[in-house]
Amino acid sequence: MSICIRSLASIANLGPGFDVMSLAIMEPYDDAYIELSRGEDRVEFIGNYAHYLPSDYKVTTLYPVIEEFRRIMGIDFHVHVVVKKNIKPASGLGSSGADAAAMAYALNKLLNAGLDYKSLIRIAALGEVAAAGTPHMDNVAASLLGGLVIINPVTGDFVRVDLPDNYWVVIVMAGSKPSTKEMRKLLPNAVDMNSLKNNSAYASMLVYALITGNREALGKALMGDAVVEPVRAKLYPHYNAVKEALLKAGAIGVALAGAGPSLFGIFDFEPSKERINELLHARGLRDHALIITRPSNIGVHEIP
Ligand code: HSE
């Protein structure tokens, strides 16, 4: 028994929604072939970014997901997995989460486990420990469900929202980060009341603004994080230049994609790649990659 799965990249946090908000995007995506097999596990990464993955699959996001299914189902099954990596690892686009989501979705089908999405999110998030040191749920939830996902990482309760089709997302991949794990270690353990109020207000405003298309509220909300982004932005020398360039190109708002180093801008028109590159070049950026894509209202799905 085998299955082919497409799992989409996602943008977590969206400014003020640290660990609680994430948006699935149409591109890039990883494709995975997953087969129940005899003998032992065989896991292979191919494609553009395969060389970024460790050769030992036991330290990838896939392994904890496989192990958790073995535990839940009480059977010692084995898998043959081939993942075509198109989402660049450690770029802030939920690369590790997409693979964990694909694996959870596939095993649920192949083993006829009948688990609901809340359980699949929990299981896929276990995979994130490999990349982030903690089972954060935002990326895996968006990859699994599509759309905009708002999740309570304490209880696992979530809602997903379909977005209207007038948005474009521009991602500028530049710079690098040590790892998501390291980027999380820098964050404060506690926040003051005013920061809490600020972020709750902007996170709520963000959802309203994305649904209604209120440009002013969306811009303020996306760029309103008072807790996480200000800490991380300091580590990225390209942060201000990219933000400035995307805003000049007409972005409604710009923020770090997940823990970075990529930044993304939300547009309500299809922006020109040439114009954005021109604006980035003018600010000294050369070694970047540009992705122009759209939010996706569908999540992980089977492909022929
Ligand atoms: N919410 C996570 C973080 C996303 O910001 O650390 C990581 O992709």
Automatic annotation (TrEMBL):
Coiled coil: none
Record bears the keyword Kinase: yes
Subcellular compartments: Cytoplasm
Pathway(s) where this gene product acts: Amino-acid biosynthesis; L-threonine biosynthesis; L-threonine from L-aspartate: step 4/5
GO MF annotation, one: ATP binding
Residues noted as binding ATP in the record, renumbered to the chain: 88-98
Domain GHMP kinase C-terminal, chain residue ranges per copy: 207-278
PANTHER family reported in the protein's UniProt record: HOMOSERINE KINASE, HOMOSERINE/4-DIPHOSPHOCYTIDYL-2-C-METHYL-D-ERYTHRITOL KINASE
Role according to the record: Catalyzes the ATP-dependent phosphorylation of L-homoserine to L-homoserine phosphate.
Protein known as: Homoserine kinase
Organism: Vulcanisaeta distributa (strain DSM 14429 / JCM 11212 / NBRC 100878 / IC-017)
